[in-house]
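Researcher: If convenient, please comment on what follows.
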Amino acid sequence: MSVLLIEAFYGGSHKQLIDLLQENVEDCVTFSLPAKKWHWRARTASLYFMQAIPSSSTYRVLLTSSVLNLAELVALRPDLGKLKKILYFHENQLVYPVRKSQDRDFQYGYNQVLSCLVADVVVFNSSFNMESFLTSISTFMKLIPDHRPKDLEKLIRPKSQVLYFPIKFPDVRREHDKDPEVFFKTLLKLKEKGLSFQVSVLGETFTDVPDIFAEARKDLDAYISHWGYLPSKEDYLKVLCEADVVVSTARHEFFGVAMLEAVHCGCYPLCPKALVYPEIFSAEYLYSTPEQLFKKLQDFCRKPDIVRRHHVKVDTDQFSWAALCRKFRSLLAAEAGEDL
């Protein structure tokens, strides 16, 4: 029981990573909270874990995601502060999109900065995630009206590194931040052009679902193959394997598990030329404007063999658990280990 895994938001990619480590790394014990009420998890999870995690002399390493305020936890539990503390960033709150700038709650990003300062190792799932966080710290701290801290990036960067999120292929899984308006408006333009296509819209349903989903489901009814969450991974894989193209219209993405899973199943990817995507996909799979996305899809609808005969030039194996397991095991070793 030398590795303590703590997850304040046990769902989606956060759950996938914890489950993967629990299954494949010896001597792990996990404490988690359900993936609900994200804001409250970020605010109060440390107090819950203070009471939920029993004292033990066998803990050597602690790994948690950046949802948890690690600084609060180690202050409440000094025994945990003595462990090798690893903070894993699936996303970061300094650049996470909000509808209006005044909607951004300073506390969430501030908590992540504090967590980095007390962590021994800070790990990001992509270079985009790391650089967007570290280079935004100085600007973010200017929101403090006076007596601002200085040079925090210089304290955090030396202990920061990139370790891609590990995907256990072929197992698969797929909000205002995904910009569904662009996606559905593009499909409606294809419909207006009289083009033939079928669409599958997969994923979990959350409490706050944009109105565009209900409107699009009605307007595109004749073009829909699948709609909604598929609880069976086998069924989800089957849909991906039947598809020709996978589209992202994300306004926020720090890694993109679902896109890589779809590519692994043979889909041709179309992604924004922004965020993490240029780090993973070459230029031919990127678009800069909704108009470019529409033109690409229009061409594919008229000549589907373009994508059906295309071999996607993305080595998904480099993102697999098989390729990354040694680095994760080294990270979770009590000693410093190799440079990842």
